[in-house]
């Protein structure tokens, strides 16, 4: 959806603003519904941590990702971005003192190998020379991994619904402040397709996934969740084949099977 929106010559910050503007009312409503829990559990220290990880997660990680997509193709972006499960493992070990298991290391290697195989024939590998684009996506992976590790610490304290609502409201506020400094304030000048795509991103790529991710982290922990999330590129390729009529190659099918094997390694006892 991001690539489709960029066709209409919209800049990164404005597109992020539209995405968050459509998301914010939903987060506000859910936070208001859980106000009693919010008032009981939210201490100044925890609120400070929520602000930090809300800033790192869906604001800074999304901003770096959107910027990176202006320099490199989505296929290469996926491959670079999915270094984040490895980052999550090491951050969880360093900050949360969570042991890295043999199964987790095997799963990371297998799933990442599968992702590379899936995108092996896609155009874009020559863009590795584009240092700016590659660096931006690496920063996106690092900030998103930090958000997941922070979520692993905060979700048991606040619950997945309250944490997600607060963190995402912080992200929305960060995007709005950013836009105030760099935006042109011509928000009504875009084609209707841009607003439709932004609404789609808000509901299906922001609100729903954000709550599902928090529940998954609650059940699996950040490390195992990040590995299971490697299934994302598999579903993207399958959906593109079903709904967009894109060709499904042998490399993609083999890579998908490899990813599924890797995910199995980390979920078989869950």
From TrEMBL:
One GO cellular component, as annotated: plasma membrane
Organism: Reichenbachiella agariperforans
Chain ranges passing through the membrane: 12-34, 46-67, 79-96, 103-120, 132-149, 161-182, 194-213, 225-244, 250-267
Family matches, as PANTHER family: INNER MEMBRANE TRANSPORTER, S-ADENOSYLMETHIONINE_S-ADENOSYLHOMOCYSTEINE TRANSPORTER
Annotated membrane topology: Multi-pass membrane protein
UniProt cross-references to InterPro entries, sorted A to Z: AA-Vitamin_Transporters, EamA_dom, EmrE-like
Protein name listed in UniProt: EamA-like transporter family protein
Coiled-coil segments: none
Superkingdom, taxonomy of origin: Bacteria
Keywords: Cell membrane, Membrane, Transmembrane, Transmembrane helix
Predominant location: membrane
């Amino acid at each position: 959806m991001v690539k489709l929106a960029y066709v209409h010559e919209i800049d990164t910050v404005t597109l992020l603003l539209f995405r968050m503007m459509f998301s914010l009312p939903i987060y506000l409503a859910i936070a208001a519904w859980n106000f009693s829990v919010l008032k009981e559990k939210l201490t100044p220290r925890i609120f400070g941590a929520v602000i930090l990880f809300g800033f790192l997660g869906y604001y800074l990680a999304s901003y770096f990702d959107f910027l990176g997509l202006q320099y490199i193709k989505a296929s290469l972006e996926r491959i670079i971005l999915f270094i984040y499960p490895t980052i999550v493992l090491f951050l969880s070990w360093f900050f949360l003192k969570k042991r890295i298991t043999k199964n987790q290391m095997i799963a990371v290697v297998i799933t990442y190998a599968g992702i590379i195989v899936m995108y092996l024939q896609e155009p874009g590998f020559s863009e590795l020379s584009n240092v700016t684009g590659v660096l931006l996506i690496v920063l996106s992976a690092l900030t998103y991994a930090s958000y997941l590790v922070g979520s692993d610490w905060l979700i048991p304290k606040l619950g997945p619904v309250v944490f997600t609502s607060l963190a995402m409201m912080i992200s929305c506020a960060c995007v709005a402040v950013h836009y105030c400094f760099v935006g042109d304030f011509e928000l009504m000048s875009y084609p209707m397709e841009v607003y439709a795509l932004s609404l789609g991103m808000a509901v299906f790529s922001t609100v729903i996934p954000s709550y599902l991710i928090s529940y998954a982290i609650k059940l699996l922990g950040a490390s195992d969740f990040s590995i299971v999330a490697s299934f994302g590129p598999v579903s993207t390729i399958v959906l593109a084949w079903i709904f967009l009529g894109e060709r499904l190659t042998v490399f993609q099918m083999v890579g998908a099977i490899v990813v599924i094997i890797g995910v199995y390694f980390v979920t078989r006892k869950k």
